[in-house]
Write a structure and sequence with these properties.
The chain has 19 helices and 4 strands. It has 3 domains: about 110 residues, no CATH class; about 160 residues, no CATH class; about 100 residues. The chain has about 425 residues and is mainly α.
Length: about 425
């Protein structure tokens, strides 16, 4: 059962705590999830501790029981600080992302970034996750896809990172947007290709080496604090980023206007490329190509590596749904009803403790101080909040440590609602 809270609770982990508990096996225990999003071992009560180690033992055996954000955060911290068997650790972490991927979208994106970084630091094969949030990692994945010949299938969650300022709600699950975008880019490249050096990846400008902080948001005790990726220069004003954004926005516009649905604003885009996109949509609708036709052998999922992760996925989903029904209470149903009618309440419900704490501080112009005090990276926390704001209120709400003035009253009202709901839930 969830109730809004206004201050983050982050437990301090220590390297000695992790190493002392790494080999601990857990006996079967009843489900007991923690409400703490970033816990240490000492913050878990007896029941939560017993269930965490049982859950972790089952994960290592390929059994995926009900979990929560706090457990996934603690498990990720354990993995990135362990070097006993890096290949097995990476397998465990990537499978956790795949099984629990919808538990908290933004948080699991950051865990996917950890998978990439762990592989890089330990010189393992890139797990090729189809999601991420750290911009250097996102641009690296896009660069890798564009560099393949033909262009490799572009994960829609990676492509969505190029849609800043566009309502993410336009990207529904009914259409294979990633595959349509890939086919459109392949056809555009064929249209313009004249010989060596005339591929899209060549036209998008020079490559650059981008550095990023490793394991942002997680407790990490290793020596490597920065990592470097070789990527196209997808800076905010680069032609490469503008082209990717325009291509995806045009694809969304063409698909949704044909179905008489709301669509993103029309962007400036070459007519010959727009014709390519329309042809791709027509071919998909007529069945001339299917999403699976695009996937070359090198980009197919390694089924052996995720076999155990998929074993109990249906059972997990069914169990989680059943237990949520059993735990529901009248106050929660009332909150859900209120949320569905108000986009600001929906935004409030989507924010985690850290995001709510930061946004409340930003209301008073203290966002930067809050970020420093809590070890947060300003750009990362604001991108996370604004991505959710785009989903619910169709605009960004915080910038450079301060709430955007146009939305100050709405956000203050959102916090008043959270406080009332919190008190009501505990009365």
């Amino acid at each position: 059962m969830w109730y809004p809270t206004l201050s983050p609770r982050r437990g301090q982990l220590y390297e000695s705590d992790i190493s002392a508990r790494w080999d601990r096996e857990g006996d079967e225990a009843p489900v007991a999830l923690t409400s703490i999003e970033y816990p240490n071992y000492h913050q878990l009560n007896e029941a939560e501790t017993a269930y965490y180690f049982y859950w972790r033992s089952m994960v290592r055996k390929g059994k995926y029981l009900r979990s929560c954000k706090g457990f996934l955060h603690l498990f990720t911290c354990e993995i990135i600080n362990n070097e006993d068997d890096p290949k097995e650790n990476l397998r465990l972490l990537t499978n956790v992302v795949k099984v629990y991927g919808n538990l908290d979208r933004v948080f699991l994106d950051s865990v996917a970034d950890c998978c990439f970084t762990y592989a890089k630091l330990h010189k393992l094969e890139d797990p090729k996750m189809d999601r991420g949030c750290e911009w250097p990692i996102v641009t690296y994945r896009m660069t890798e896809c564009l560099s393949e010949d033909p262009i490799a299938p572009i994960p829609v969650k990676i492509a969505m990172q190029f849609l800043r300022g566009v309502d993410m709600g336009y990207v529904d699950d009914e259409h294979p947007y990633g595959e349509m975008l890939t086919q459109a880019l392949r056809d555009i490249e064929s249209l313009e290709r004249r010989g060596p050096g005339t591929r899209l990846v060549d036209a998008m400008g020079v490559r650059t080496k981008m550095q990023y902080d490793v394991y942002v948001g997680f407790e990490y005790f290793g020596d490597r604090r920065r990592a470097t990726v070789d990527t196209l220069k997808f800076s905010s004003d680069s032609s490469a980023k503008r082209f990717m954004r325009a291509t995806f926005s045009t694809l969304l516009f063409e698909v949704r206007t044909r179905e008489r649905k709301s669509a993103p604003n029309v962007v400036e885009y070459p007519a010959r490329y727009r014709s390519v996109i329309r042809r791709v949509i027509d071919q998909w609708r007529s069945g001339e190509w299917k999403p699976e036709d695009l996937e070359p052998e090198t980009f197919r999922l390694d089924r052996k590596s995720v076999e155990r992760a998929e074993m109990d996925l249906d059972a997990v989903s069914e169990m989680m749904a059943t237990e949520e029904e059993e735990e529901s209470a009248p106050v929660v149903e009332k909150v859900k009803e209120e949320i569905s009618d108000d986009p600001w309440k929906a935004l409030a419900s989507s924010l985690d403790d850290t995001e709510r704490g930061y946004l409340e501080a930003a209301l008073e112009g203290n966002g930067k101080q809050y970020a420093r005090s809590n070890g947060l990276r300003l750009t990362a926390i604001e991108e996370s909040i604004n991505a959710k704001a785009m989903d619910h209120v169709n605009d960004i709400v915080v910038e450079d440590g301060t709430v955007i003035s146009d939305y100050e009253q709405e956000i203050r009202g959102m916090y008043r609602w959270m406080r009332r709901t919190y008190r009501r839930g505990h009365s």
